[in-house]
Amino acid sequence: MTTPPQDARRSAPATARNREPILSVLQRVLPARGLVLEIASGTGEHAVFFSRALPGLTWQPTDVDASARASVDAWAEAEGPETLRPAVALDVTARPWPVDAADAVVCINMIHISPPECTPALLQGAAVVLPRGAPLVLYGPFRVGGVHTSESNAAFDNWLKAQNPSFGIRNLDDVADMAAGAGFSTPETVEMPANNLTVVFRRG
């Protein structure tokens, strides 16, 4: 398999703004060693940044979209460490997942820009691949108690639904209930910049 050219690289401006705050949580909750399975890696910029900052971990990026995987691999070719694996195709709703075991699962900015069935599929799939006590880390905007946490999030939610009626900012309580049904603990929530949350579940 040939490595994609560097011009396949995509860039998401939000990555530069949120990567340091997310890293501060990951440094605390991820294991020191092991395999991190990243779901919906997008451009691949997070994968490169986190794998360089956390050298004890092997980072496995994934995405359902082929052009996203090409971007991940192009970023990895340009800047990634050896601990960053080539991206693999993974659709959270398709079983079995191509990665059958991991020491942590990380998913950034996916559940609000995917159909609602992807959220329980993500939680149930993560429960299959994670051992007891291992973390599932979600990042993005959430409604809390059914209410948006800011006017900008409410406006963003309306914009998302205009793009695709199945998209939208999910209610954290609903996600936590689904996670509990899949065998995860009550989440730890960490407030992040730009009215986002990092939500950390542990496999029961």
Rounded Rg: 16 Å
**Which residues form runs of ≥5 with pLDDT under 50?**
none
Distance between the termini: 39 Å
Binned, the helix content reads: 25-40%
Structural class by helix and strand composition: alpha/beta
Model description:
- This protein has a seven-stranded mixed β-sheet, with helices on both faces.
- The protein is 37% helix and 19% strand.
- The chain is α/β, with parallel strands linked by helices and 204 residues long.
- The protein starts with 12 loop residues before the first helix and ends with a strand.
- The chain has helices spanning 13-29, 45-53, 66-79, 118-129, 151-163, 172-181; strands at 34-39, 57-63, 88-89, 104-108, 135-140, 188-192, 196-202.
- It is built from six helices and seven strands; from the N terminus they run αβαβαββαβααββ.
List the helices and strands and how they pair.
Elements: H1 13-29, E1 34-39, H2 45-53, E2 57-63, H3 66-79, E3 88-89, E4 104-108, H4 118-129, E5 135-140, H5 151-163, H6 172-181, E6 188-192, E7 196-202
Parallel strand pairs: 1-2, 1-4, 2-3, 4-5
Antiparallel strand pairs: 5-7, 6-7
